[in-house]
Amino acid sequence: MTSLICGSLAFDTIMLFQGRFSDALLADQLHKINVAFLVPEIRREFGGCAGNIAYNLKLLQGDPLIMATIGQDGAPYLERLDRMQISRRCIRTIETSYTAQAFITTDADSNQITAFHPGAMAMAHQNRIADAGPVKLAIVAPDGRDGMLQHATDCAERGLPFIFDPGQGLPMFAGPELERFIELATYVAVNDYEAELLTQRTGLTLEKIAERVSALIVTRGEQGAEIYTGGKRIDIPCVRADKVVDPTGCGDAFRAGLLYGLTNDMDWATTGRLASLMGAIKIASQGPQNHAPSRDEIEDRFQKAFGYRF
After folding, report:
1. What residue spans of the chain are helical by DSSP H?
2. Which of 30, 122, 229, 257 could, after both became Cys, cross-link 215 (CB 3.0–4.6 A)?
3. Are 234 and 226 in contact (CB under 8 A)?
4. Predicted confidence pLDDT, tens digits, the chain (310 residues)
């Protein structure tokens, strides 16, 4: 029941500035900024949509296969995947680039200044779906622009069902390109902001988008999620988190639940509930890949939340 996960692998360097950006930035001098922030706290996280989705799918004892590009500095990430027994045979190393990475500085008011270097991610189109071998389902998650276009086309041409998950990559595409993704995809998964942007750029309502795919999944944070399929809407409740620590990677955890449910032929109500639970588990931990519940613990949490086991 292998799931092919096309998307980014990235390093996230997160720095904490104990003051406020507003105290260091002068409103009448923004045209000539030259400022440094002292950041006594710093941490580096493994991230990227493909890595995050694969991590969560592995927690469910699924079989993720990552298709991504990584740079000359990617050895620590590859070693981590080896320790987790996640296949890296479809990860291409771009020796002339660094791995995609984000440098995020957060102040005392939770404002953020982020610099993002795409690096090897820009070469994602060098990977080909045909190299993956037999898989049951794929997801085309945020990645290099050309890579997302290439992988969606490859999946459709090979008759491989896939989830189109544009995420933060959605603004890269014009309306006709997004319509093409929808035409090629089996499923579409977006959050509420992305859903609004998708409808604006394509001129299609959510109902019209749903008519073109087997299912449209829209997440709405603490309001839960909606699954449009077969001419009806299934409402998925939000699972209450033990605590709210960090939303980074929650959407990826949700998508891992979708992949697990679909590859194991679960009904949509159960698939959506499992996805919702995975997001709730993730949000209680700092960073996108630091939560580590066992499969039994996930099953117990599911039963506690919904009254039955998946």
Report:
1. 21-24, 49-59, 75-83, 145-157, 175-184, 192-202, 206-212, 250-263, 268-283, 295-306
2. 229
3. yes
4. 899 999 999 999 999 899 999 888 877 777 788 888 899 989 999 999 999 999 999 999 999 999 999 999 999 999 999 999 999 999 999 999 999 999 999 888 878 888 999 999 999 999 999 999 999 999 999 999 999 999 999 999 999 999 999 999 999 999 999 999 999 999 999 999 999 999 999 999 999 999 999 999 999 999 999 999 999 999 999 999 999 888 889 999 999 999 999 999 999 999 999 999 999 999 999 999 999 999 999 999 999 999 999 9
Q: Which domains does the chain have, with CATH numbers?
A: 2-10+47-100+121-306 (3.40.1190.20)
DSSP 8-state code for residue 287: S
Tell me if 144 sits within 8 A of 124, measured CB to CB: yes
Q: Residue 255: which residues within 8 A CB-CB, separation 6 or more?
A: 53, 56, 139, 141, 163, 165, 189, 275
| pTM metric for this prediction | 0.94
Residues 21 and 107: beta-carbon distance below 8 Å: yes
Measure CA of the first residue to CA of the last residue in the chain; give whole Å: 17
Other beta carbons within 10 Å of 235: 12
- Strand arrangement of the beta sheet that strand 215-219 belongs to: 91-94, 63-71, 2-6, 137-140, 162-164, 187-191, 215-219, 225-229, 232-236
CB 131 within 8 A of CB 74: no
- For 128, list phi and psi in degrees, rounded to 5: -125, 135
Tally Cβ neighbours within 10 Å of residue 90: 20
